[in-house]
Write a structure and sequence with these properties.
Layout (H helix, E strand, L loop, with lengths): L1 H11 L1 H12 L3 H14 L9 H12 L5 H26 L14 H14 L3 H4 L6 H11 L4 H26 L3 H5 L1 H24 L1
Length: about 210
């Protein structure tokens, strides 16, 4: 429970924790952010890492001079692209047998099956749409690898998805993250980003239940 409480605190007060990391590590903050985004998109066992909110808060801190916005966007774009590429390769390596795995603390079988169904319906567009959906974002490239999507087609949608996700949320934080109202209610804004990004997942779950 202590670890869960600490994780929730980091997510809800991401601005304070990230600002402290910027002060402590200076230029190395780019490597830290790279590692987080790369892991969140590259491994099916780490979908719990902050994604959308991290991009927004990082953009807001860049606007205050803590980071260079051009370097930040480039680093995050490369991390998101390479993370998906690794996930895709792992999916190709493991193949359909992953559907026989049991659900566990580190593997969400239900999320895998829902992403697979979404992929079957929307194809390559899944790699773009899923960038803005927690859980789906982590499983989409993995499922593309399982489905043996061609590498060239995967790369095309991967680049579009990474660019749209990183640029939109990072620049949103850069331009709007330091407005007085946003700063005074940043925890609520972070919660809002998480809730809004989860709405399509909840709707899909509800429709499936009906």
């Amino acid at each position: 429970m202590e670890y869960l409480a600490a994780f929730i605190d980091i997510v809800l007060h991401l601005d304070k924790h990230l600002a402290l990391l910027v002060q402590q590590y200076g230029p190395w903050i780019y490597a830290i952010l790279f590692a987080i985004i790369f892991s969140e998109t590259g491994f099916v066992v780490t979908p719990f890492l902050p994604g959308d909110s991290l991009l927004f808060v990082a953009g807001a801190l860049a606007a205050l001079g803590g980071m260079d916005i051009g370097t930040l966007v480039a680093v995050l774009f490369v991390a998101a692209t390479l993370g998906n590429m690794l996930n895709y390769q792992i999916g190709r390596l493991l193949g359909p047998k992953v559907f026989q795995w049991e659900n566990s603390r580190f593997f969400n079988k239900a999320a895998l099956e829902k992403t697979h169904a979404f992929y079957e319906k929307h194809g390559g567009k899944t790699l773009v749409i899923s960038r803005f959906l927690p859980l789906f974002r982590t499983f989409a490239p993995f499922v593309a690898g399982i489905g043996a999507m061609s590498y060239s087609r995967f790369t095309f949608f991967n680049l579009i998805g990474a660019a749209s996700w990183v640029v939109s949320l990072t620049l949103a934080g850069y331009f709007f993250g330091n407005l007085p109202w946003v700063q005074q209610n940043l925890t609520a804004v972070i919660l809002g980003i998480i809730v809004v990004s989860m709405i399509p997942v909840v709707i899909g779950w509800w429709q499936q239940r009906k």
